[in-house]
Design goal:
The chain is about 30% helix and about 15% strand. About 30% of the residues are buried. Strand 5 and strand 6 form a beta hairpin. The strands form two sheets. Strands 5-6-2-7-1-8 form a six-stranded mixed beta sheet, covered by helices on one side. It has a two-stranded antiparallel sheet with strand order 3-4. With about 240 residues, the chain is an alpha/beta fold. Helix 5 crosses helix 6. The protein is extended and about 80 Å long. The protein contains seven helices and eight strands.
Length: about 240
């Protein structure tokens, strides 16, 4: 889905190969050759199938996790500066990718101040346990307009996690606890098969960011800032 169109790739390769052949023949002959025809055919192949045929198994940090093994891309939206619009951009990015035909999830990892329940208000915001046939201890993401959602703000305030629930109080979490909460939201959610999981990170470069980087192999990241010099000074540090 995120890859350029195969037709465009084929055309570019054809042009380059044709130019190289003409140049090679020109070096061997006094006159420039004409009517050099080049045909390029690209057949898309599933990465897993290709790896199996070559007896190569790609290992990534998420490959051993039941919840993450069927997710193709992880994209982080981050900034060292707070209040610059990370969550808004993450939500818009997720829904735009979904509108383009992708299977998309959006995970709010700002455990100190979850904002996804404010930006996106599902008809049924209840987080439910996964069916018995799914791995024990998993929960189902909330599906809203084609995008799978999860946030500490959707979790029941009776869960015992500080700051959980739509009207949760202050999330007073020490570093190791914050890392465990992030891991639970990430690996304890039954995401299923996704093309992209968009990760809305809290500001800074603390335990949440470290947990994400250690648990996942990111496909890309979006740094968010405002034009002010003060915001740029902090964003550069991330």
């Amino acid at each position: 889905m995120l890859h350029p169109k195969l037709q465009e790739i084929t055309s570019n390769i054809t042009q380059v190969v044709q130019e190289e052949i003409v140049q090679l023949l020109s070096n061997k002959h006094t006159s420039e050759p004409h009517d050099v025809d080049v045909s390029v055919k690209i057949n898309p192949q599933d990465i897993t199938t290709a790896s199996n045929n070559m007896n190569i198994r790609e290992t990534t940090p998420q490959s051993s996790s039941f919840a993450l093994k069927n997710i193709t891309h992880f994209v982080a939206v981050y900034s060292c500066k707070g209040g610059v619009g990370k969550s808004t951009i993450a939500a818009n990015l997720a829904y735009q990718l979904s509108a383009m035909g992708g299977r998309v999830g959006l995970l709010d990892l700002d455990v100190y101040g979850p904002s996804l329940p404010i930006l996106v208000q599902p008809d049924d915001p209840t987080v439910r346990k996964s069916p018995p046939h799914v791995q024990e201890g998993m929960v189902e993401p909330i599906l809203h307009k084609g995008v799978k959602l999860m946030s500490l703000g959707f979790v029941s305030p009776n869960s015992g996690v500080p700051g959980s629930g739509p009207n949760g109080g202050a999330a007073v979490l020490r570093g190791p606890i914050a890392g465990r909460v992030v891991s639970q939201l990430l690996k304890g959610t039954n995401w299923g098969e996704l093309d992209v999981l968009v990760l809305d990170l809290p500001p800074g470069t603390g335990d949440v960011q470290l947990e994400v980087c250690q648990s996942l192999s990111l496909s890309g990241a979006v740094a968010v800032s405002t034009p002010s010099a003060l915001a740029w000074a902090d964003v550069r540090k991330g």
